[in-house]
Design a protein that fits this description.
The chain is an all-beta fold. Helix content is about 0%, strand content about 25%. The chain has no helices and 17 strands. It has strands spanning about 5-10, 15-20, 25-30, 35-40, 40-50, 70, 85-90, 95-100, 115-120, 120-125, 215, 220-225, 280-285, 290-295, 295-305, 305-315, 320-325.
């Protein structure tokens, strides 16, 4: 419970109430309706917030999973969006932190979307799941979209005797590629943070996942949010992921906490498409600031120059928070 110290002074217009809130570490004045803060201390926080990657489609020539939305105040954002401004946040106030899980592959149908990653007001949705083997026209052959607000990349469409469409992206990602029909039967690649997924087919890049996006918030250049590769038939390209450990055909995304898509299933229809990788939150604050997390947060920290960098890789539920002091 907050400890409140209240003082009351006389004023020519009547009684004015002041108090000091020892939880928020600031003075407050009563305006006749509610207590309002006076000069609360703040800190600047740079961030990278990536949603979970979508899973690849199942049942033969599935599309690759789309990458999670990449939002950041350090460098270019996903979808070619310009760098966002640094957040100025109040000290001693709890802010939500949620890590979106990677989408899971499903036997015989469209892969699941990735989960939503959240930090304070920044919301990054997961990538869309890849479409299933395109022999049906019920929508499961299409890559799933990742819609705004905070949308990432769309999943690739499934290939087969018909053609699945690539899923649409939100602001912070790119579209998934369309699947190829006829004898090629190659799924489309999932969209990545830096480029659209490739359409399925026989060429050297057919069905490849969209490119990942590099970011330097940790002090070195690291790739995030690559699109998963589509599953192929024998005459199609072997298809690769779009970087950052995105799954190639039949494969799970191989690097945790990059928000990359899983690969589409290419062969045995009794197995699911590849799983996407979970998202991540990375925070950079001045070295004089300390971030304190609730017990359900898995995090690590490092000193980089004059800053502290906190990397959050998992949260136990949606009630986890971070407080700066």
């Amino acid at each position: 419970m907050s400890k409140i110290i209240t003082d009351e002074i006389e004023h020519s217009a009547g009684s004015i109430k002041f108090r000091f809130n020892t939880t928020l570490k600031c003075a407050e004045i009563y305006n006749g309706f509610e207590w309002t803060q006076i000069g609360q201390a703040t800190t600047d926080v740079d961030y990278l917030v990536v949603g979970g990657g979508g899973a690849g489609g199942g049942n033969w020539r599935g599309g690759g999973g789309g990458a999670g939305a990449l939002r950041t105040s350090v460098g270019t954002q996903g979808g070619g969006e310009a760098q966002a401004p640094t957040l100025t946040l109040a000290k001693h106030t709890a802010y939500s932190v949620i890590i979106g899980a990677g989408g899971t592959g499903v036997v015989g149908t469209q892969g699941n979307n990735g989960g939503t990653t959240t930090f304070a007001t920044i919301v990054s949705k997961g990538g869309g799941g890849g479409g299933r083997y395109a022999t049906v026209t019920d929508g499961t052959e299409n890559g799933a979209a990742s819609s705004d607000p905070g949308g990432g990349s769309g999943g690739g469409g499934g290939g087969g005797s018909t053609t699945g469409d690539g899923g649409a992206s939100g602001t912070y990602g790119y579209n998934g590629g369309n699947g190829a029909g006829a004898t090629i039967q190659c799924g489309g690649g999932g969209g990545g943070a830096a480029g659209a997924g490739y359409t399925g087919g026989p060429s050297a890049t057919a069905g490849d996942g969209g490119a990942a996006l590099a970011n330097t918030i940790t002090g070195s250049s690291v790739d995030y949010a690559g699109g998963g590769g589509g599953g192929n038939y024998s005459s199609g390209n072997v298809t690769i992921g779009g970087g950052a450990g995105a799954g190639a055909k039949d494969e799970d995304a191989s690097i945790a906490n990059r928000g990359s898509g899983g690969g589409g299933r290419s062969g045995d229809h009794s197995h699911p498409g590849g799983d996407g990788s979970s998202g991540v939150v990375i925070l950079r604050v001045p070295s004089t600031i300390t971030a304190t997390f609730t017990s359900g947060v898995t995090s690590s920290s490092a000193t980089v120059g004059s800053n502290k960098v906190y990397t959050i890789t998992a949260t136990s539920d949606n009630s986890q928070t971070v407080t700066f002091s």
